[in-house]
Amino acid sequence: MLALTPARARPRTGSYVQVTEVEYRLLLSEAAVGAGAVHVQQIDGGMDPHDLRIRDGSSGRVFSLPLLNPGQMHDAVVYMRPGVYHLWCSVPGHWKLGMHAILRVAAH
After folding, report:
1. Using one digit for the tens of pLDDT, what is the confidence trace for 21-59?
2. 4-106: what fold?
3. Partners of 105 in the β-ladder
């Protein structure tokens, strides 16, 4: 199940991944995280606005993080089950230019 709760600081428990968005790549601080509460820190490190979508590869459910302007950051906690998750920027044309990545979520 994909669900969101606001996050203001890195949690003491759970997993953490920072997603830096630049033209035209997503840079993940971790390639794999543990299942459960995953603190996702989204950073627009580029020159264009970017958003972030996260799709559970097994269920197809999509979670949307906001459109950020250059230099902005957004924190969220996403509850993830074990599996493969697809991340991308949904701004028109950005996927085709390479703004997508894979995050693996492992059982504890």
Report:
1. 999 999 999 999 999 999 999 999 999 999 999 999 989
2. Immunoglobulin-like (2.60.40)
3. 33, 83
Distance (Å, rounded) from C-alpha 63 to C-alpha 5?
Answer: 12
Which of these, 90, 51, 62, lies nearest to 2 by C-alpha position? 62
pTM of the model: 0.87
User: Sheet of 36-44: strands edge to edge?
Assistant: 4-6, 73-80, 36-44, 15-22, 25-28
DSSP reduced 3-state for 99: coil
Map out the domains of the chain as residue ranges: 4-106
Tens of pLDDT, residues 86-101 = 999 999 999 999 999 9
